[in-house]
Amino acid sequence: MPPFHAGRQFPTTHSPNAVPLPNADPFRAATVRERAAHDRTPKTLALLLFLALSAQAQTLPTYSQQIAPILFDHCTECHRPGESAPFSLLTYEDAKKHATQIAKVTHSRYMPPWPPEPNYGDFAGTRRLTETQINQLTQWAAAGAPQGDPTKTPPIPHYTQGWKLGPPDLILKMPKPFNLQASEKDVFRNFVIPVNLNQSRYVKAVELHPGNPKVVHHANVIIDRARSLRSRDTNGQGFPGMDVETESGGEDFEPDSHFLFWKPGTVAQPDPEDMAWRLDPNTDLVINLHMQPSGKPESIQAEIGLYFTDRPPSRKPILVQLEHDGAIDMAPGATAAVTDELKLPVAAQLLAIYPHAHYIGKRIEAWAILPTGKRVELLRINNWDINWQAAYSYSKPIELPSNTRLMMRITYNNTTTKRVRAGNRSEDEMGHVWLQLLPLKDKSDADPRLAVHLAVMRRRLEKYPADFLAHYNLGAALQSLGDHKESTQYLEKAVRLRPDSLTARNTLGVGYMLADQLDRAAQEFKEVIKQQPHYANAHFNLARVLAAQSDANGATREFEAFLEIEPDDGRGHALLAGVLAATGHIAEATPHFRKAVESDPKNADAWTNLGTALAIGHDYTGAIEALENALKIEPNHEKAKTNLARARADLARQRPRP
What is the mean pLDDT of residues 338-342? Predict the structure, then answer.
């Protein structure tokens, strides 16, 4: 009943049981009603109390109707047998046993793990509970975790055992199980897995099985196209490190573009087929594991399932890193912050974001400043916890015009008793914000990712003028764009900074070769081979230089050395065959021409070279077949048409007349 106010007139309509009191004194009316309430019998009061309690009981959440749906939607992906969570929540008995704990961790929003703050990025698959759901869990636990009507409990979710995306097209496994000892410290280790492919494939999905989810905290997959890390994993037991660097060659520049990792609760999902990524032969995948010892010896043997598509990507994203680890240096008890920014040289769409810090990270923020000055929030995590790091995909791409400034800020609180600096160890610190960008093409034909990559490397050199990787990557990217003069300057600096980097020396040699400085190129390749006799690319490149210098014997020797290491490389066979044929060794060249055709059967030039060699060797029937195959692939191939006519004429002259 609303409060009375002096001078108010009662309405002229009333319920059937009401006594009309027009123009009555409001205070007197209140007195009449209060007295009526006091005249009720104890029996009436008991009945009203019973009805009130019954109504309250009906509104209390029960497991069957309110709680089970919450747990099934948000919790049981991890909280079930065989997964990483410490207990199962698939049944009422399981949930009742942990009701108080569930209420506590959901009220504090520790569970389910979803660190991003609301209104700082609109993310797909948000796992944050609503206030209503949190209140229901709290009320349910406080009421003794009532079950409700068991027949109204929804069915337990069906979880696919084994490969959730179905049988993979290729399964790669750690060569040997790794035995994790019962120690107190976290273990970070990397395991190299060779990829045995005979041709490039496009990967639309990756499903990573950690091998022992009870002790594997998270796992990453690193693409090592240059096989630069395999020398550190000589016995299949991996090598230590939390964050590793790979080197890649400049002739086949393609930035890594996808977040490839596993964490508790990860749902394997394929990428859009128009965003598949290329996996080449002679590539290594590296599994980077963060393991937490359980107090007893454990065995881990992770697997990677790859799912292929025949559709080449039409959209090619790139991963961009904002960081300033070089500024991290904190005394015990100190607080600090690091910032970084990057100006986009081209327009792009932002698809996803991945923040990363170690144990003393406190808050992570990322935002964009558009050319108009408008600020766009990308992410904020107020209470960073390394145990719940993840990549977050946006519900829809964020449009970023050219000249947008991408910015990040990470704050730290060193509550330890030690000085903390940047580094790969868990007791060191890091501060990264990775952005998955889809650069948009402009009027030029150049890959727009290259412009972004160049901007990232130039920004890195602003922060770290003596950074080897920045010099190397910038030089390799410029080399791929044909800017050999500037490229060589950066590559020379990279080699001075790290003389033992064979990849840098090999790439510098390629730069000299492209600039027609053949003697300097040969010197670099020979130095690489001296330090690493089985460095295949150095043998290949040195052979090309020697062939250009008309040293046929030297070129033959180096091509043969290359093919001992890479026996199925079609290009190596083709070039060796060309050197042998040019020096009149047709019989020796022909088997290599055949190997080149077997490696690339849709290459009209390879068939033409084989047919020509067979014709010179007087195998006109084989020559005609090979040259006809060339013309099936490329009907206007002039050399194939000319040599086919000659082979047919020579065959006709060879046959006896009737």
Answer: 98
* Domains parsed from the chain with CATH numbers: 59-150 (no CATH), 170-315 (2.60.120.310), 317-460 (2.60.120.230)
248 vs 504: CA distance, rounded Å: 9
**What are 339's strand-pairing partners?**
409
- Report how far residue 646's alpha carbon sits from residue 564's, in angstroms, rounded to the nearest whole number: 36
DSSP, collapsed to helix, strand or coil, labels residue 413 as strand
Residue 613 phi/psi, 5-degree rounding, is -65, -40
**Locate tokens 């130095």: which residue?**
527
- C-alpha angle 198-199-205 in degrees, rounded to nearest 5: 110
Rounded Cα–Cα distance for residues 231 and 175 (Å): 15
pLDDT over threshold 80, residue 9: no
d(CA 625, CA 611): 8
Displacement of CA 195 from its chain's centroid (Å): 18
Residue 584, Ramachandran bin (φ over 0: left; ψ between -120 and 50: alpha; else beta): left
Alpha helices for 346-409 (secondary structure H):
none
Among the ranges given (437-446, 565-574, 610-619), the one the predictor scored with the smallest mean pLDDT: 437-446
Calculate mean pLDDT across residues 543-563.
96
Tell me: pLDDT of 384 over 50: yes
Distance CA 508, CA 492 (A): 7
Per-residue model confidence as pLDDT tens digits over 497-513 = 999 988 899 999 999 99
Helix axes 586-599, 604-616, angle to 10 degrees: 160
Whether 415 and 333 have beta carbons less than 8 Å apart is answered as yes
Nearest to 306 by CA among 428, 231, 159, 200: 200
Please write the tens of the pLDDT for every residue from 284-334: 999 999 888 888 999 999 999 999 999 998 898 999 999 999 999 999 999
Using the 8-state DSSP alphabet, how is residue 429 labeled?
B
* Of the candidates 466, 200, 457, the residue with the CA atom closest to the CA atom of residue 326: 466
Q: What is the 3-state secondary structure (H, E, C) of 232-281?
A: HCCCCCCEECCCCCCCCCCCCCCCCCCCCEECCCCCCCCCCHHHCEEECC
pLDDT band at 58 (very low <50, low <70, confident <90, very high): low
Structure tokens at 130: 């609503």
Q: In this predicted structure, which of 38-42, 358-362, 485-489 has the lowest mean pLDDT?
A: 38-42
Rounded distance, CA 115 to CA 380, Å? 8
What does the block give as tokens for 90? 């698939």
Nearest-10 crossing angle of helices 638-654, 620-633: 150
Q: How far apart are CA 572 and CA 153, in angstroms?
A: 66
Q: Do residues 306 and 203 lie in contact, with contact meaning Cβ atoms separated by under 8 Å?
A: yes
Please give the full DSSP string across 40-66, using - where no structure is assigned.
S-HHHHHHHHHHHHHHHHHHS--IIII
* Strand stretches in 271-429, DSSP E: 277-279, 283-291, 298-300, 303-309, 318-323, 329-330, 335-343, 348-357, 361-369, 375-381, 392-400, 405-413, 420-421
